[in-house]
Amino acid sequence: MSQQPTHSLPSYLNADDLGPWGIYLEQIERVTPYLGSLSKWVETLKRPKRVLMVDVPIELDNGTIAHFEGYRVQHNTSRGPGKGGIRFHQDVTLSEVMALSGWMSIKCAAVNVPFGGAKGGIRINPHEHSQREVERVARRYIHEVRPIIGPNQDIPAPDVNTNGQTMAWMMDAYSQLVGTTTPGIVTGKPISLGGSLGRVEATGRGVFVTGVEAAKDKGIDLNGARVVVQGFGNVGGTAARLFHESGSKVIAVQDHTGTIFNEQGLDVPAVLQHVADTGGVAGAPNAEAIDPASFWQIENEFLIPAALENQITADNAHSLRTKILIEGANGPTTPEADDILSDKGVWIIPDVIANAGGVTVSYFEWAQNFSSYFWDEDLINQRLEAMMRAAYRDNAAVAAQHHVSLRTAAFITACTRILEARNIRGLYP
After folding, report:
1. For 56-66, how does the pLDDT look when each residue is reduced to its tens digit (9 = 90+)?
2. Is 39 labelled as part of a ligand binding site?
3. Among the options 46, 49, 119, 344, which is catalytic?
4. What is the pLDDT of residues 262-282, one digit of tens each?
5. What predicted TM-score, i.e. pTM, was given to this entire model?
6. Is 249 in the active site?
7. Residue 301 in contact with residue 322, Cβ under 8 Å?
8. Could you please report the per-residue DSSP string of 71-94?
């Protein structure tokens, strides 16, 4: 008689401190009852397909040798190649990279992009190193993870403290290793190296499109609707501009430099120009500086956290006075706050749907690289908006069917798609 398998944590994890990976596992546990016969495969989602930890040695400008710890985690590739960014940060951990790879699997499947989830990181503070040293780290990292990446295996992208220049170095390093120019090995590249038009604004545009769809469901007129935005970079700034152009009033904005408010609506183009000139929203024209803590108490129709994770917690969730919360950032709402806001009737568009515009246009970039045929920006935006609207509608229907939040619905949709692929493919050998 065969024995029932024992499900245990991978040996490289500390069971007493799972970190972000523990939050991801909790989310999978919540949706397991909705997976029906596919639940027999759920352990697939709780174990990354592949975890690689590498040493990244480089010679510093002063001639000494430094070693940095790097990771690449491929969570699931049942639906397609791994996809996920690479972050350079001194506090990167394996648990964090594992969780981010799992959330990439969910995000890609929730919006029906044919990728699996992956993520990478190097434990380095790039601000303490010269550009030449950072370049060496980027190139050496690609050399070390080369055995498991490729345009049909795993496609990196920018993340925290990495950008188009970083991707250019990585693309060049990979191309040198394989002996042919391979633009499809990364996305988020400069346009001159095969990057896609529309990529910079894609995440913010996706936030706006899903917000418009939610407004239809909730009977909110965009004209005159009050919008509050935390973070005013590519995501928050783009979303604010699009809401402003639609007739909404962006009444408050917060970033690392300060918090500004105008009850009649900020002049968003002027604020964007001020940020470009000064680096932050503090001191923007025709705006009142207010206490940062009061930001979360401003009454509004749309609240867009587009800065950092864990900004909305059990401590401030009760104070929020919004109708629709659109997560432009990754993980801005803690699970405890999520429950509090749902009980208050706040409609939350989770990060795995709301900010998936970036990975969607990354998919477009990858497809364009394979054909060496590039689309104009209007076509890219049309296709992005169509996919984001469909993703919102599909997941909203699942939420209504099961009487659950949109976040839970997104996990149900994503896990179902991933495990259906796993089930149909079967196990080999």
Report:
1. 999 999 999 99
2. no
3. 119
4. 999 999 999 999 999 999 999
5. 0.91
6. no
7. yes
8. EEEEEE-SSSSEEEEEEE-TT--H
